[in-house]
Design a protein that fits this description.
370 residues, alpha/beta, pyruvate-formate lyase- activating enzyme, 3 domains, five-stranded mixed β-barrel, 11 helices
Length: 370
């Protein structure tokens, strides 16, 4: 067992029947050596998880099981102190790969025939801190995320780069303007909001206001009207009244965004949020979640309908449906066509069909090749 849970509660996981080995955030990169020790430790799962302060190096990685798309980690850890979050306790200080090494990994991925790379990180926009964190010192900024974006735009062999979740305060106008004219960065952003109430944002210790968030969305839509924008939202945070929730609901309803990822607040040990007054009843949290999920479906349907009949490039991949293939447009609309094996892992233009409704989180539009 590895991951954030393994770092935060290793002994708890070790007691689960069937668990042989629990590795912390630093130890997971030496998994092979620990596996060799398993035969010497019968019974309860063996725990190898040191203090998070020992996690001070960036270790690069990328996925390679799918020839169509690869997820490339360029940043890890987080220095933010959001009151609901345990990520800093589980992943350590913010640290990054170097621009030079990212480019080397991109070349390796391109050699494998992958057409699209998704850039990932715990706090992706904070890219640029040195690969090694020295305890007690301020992190050294060796580059900015914008510097990385500009260099990747020159990369050969990769036809698409997609930016995963990025904080609104770190998504600058220059990044937005560059993506708008880029030859490889696609018009798709996922920007956490968490709340549309300035009161709740302050309690969460987020680093922006709703006005700043609105300005980011408006900037994107000004230079990229076709851009897909996803939003993270947390409902039921301590102190969130019905009027606070409706402030969030109305704020999102008025924003030109494409879909939501809605999370119901849950208490996390060793966070400041658990000490806050105004705990929201769980039934109320679930009700608010459902109301925003319905809004998300309406937002996605509206976004899809804007592109009915449009011609857009699609990167094709195998579908779970027999004799079918699917793929995403540059602006993250999922389409489906009859299987043509020679088109798998190829980018071709299609004419998008009508949106026929259904569960929008799994919605796939019919399309025809141009």
């Amino acid at each position: 067992m590895v991951g954030c849970y393994a770092q935060l509660k290793p002994e708890e996981i070790a007691d689960i029947p069937g668990v042989d080995l629990v590795l912390g955030a630093a130890e997971k990169f030496n998994i092979v050596s620990y596996i060799d020790e398993l035969a010497k430790a019968p019974g309860k799962g063996m725990v190898k998880a040191g203090a998070i302060s020992t996690v001070n190096h960036f270790v690069d990685s990328f996925s390679f099981g799918d020839r169509t798309r690869s997820f490339l980690k360029v940043q890890d850890g987080c220095d933010y102190k959001c009151t609901f979050c345990t990520i800093p306790q589980a992943r350590g200080k913010s640290r990054s790969d170097t621009v030079e090494n990212v480019l080397l990994n991109v070349a390796k991925i391109a050699e494998a025939g992958v057409k699209e790379i998704v850039l990932t990180g715990v706090n992706l926009g904070d890219f640029g801190n040195s690969t090694e964190v020295i305890e007690g010192t301020k992190p050294k900024k060796e580059a900015l995320f914008f510097d990385l974006v500009k260099e990747l735009d020159k990369s050969a062999g990769i036809e698409r780069f997609r930016i995963s979740s990025i904080e609104p305060n770190l998504l600058t106008d220059e990044i937005i303007e560059f993506v708008a004219q880029s030859r490889v960065f696609v018009p798709h952003f996922h920007i956490p909001l968490q709340s549309g109430s300035d009161k709740i944002l302050k309690l969460m210790r987020r680093r922006y206001t709703r006005d700043l968030y609105k300005a980011r969305i408006e900037k994107i839509k000004t230079v990229m009207p076709h851009c897909c924008i996803g939003v993270d939202v947390i409902v039921g945070f301590p102190g969130e009244s019905e009027s606070d929730f409706m402030e969030t609901y109305d704020f999102i309803n008025d924003l030109d965004v494409s879909y939501l990822h809605v999370f119901t607040y849950s208490e996390r040990a060793n966070t400041l949020a658990v000490e806050l007054e105004g705990k929201v009843d769980m039934s109320v949290r679930r009700n608010r979640n459902e109301r925003l999920r319905i809004l998300s479906e309406k937002k996605r349907a509206h976004f899809y309908q804007q592109f009915e009949g449009d011609i857009r490039p699609v990167l094709f991949e195998h579908s779970k449906e027999a004799n079918s293939m699917s793929g995403y447009t540059d602006n993250y609309i999922k389409v489906s066509l009859p299987l043509q094996e020679y088109l798998i892992n190829q980018i071709e233009e299609v004419k998008i069909g009508k949106f026929l409704g259904g569960e929008s989180t799994n919605a796939t539009l019919a399309a025809v090749l141009v």
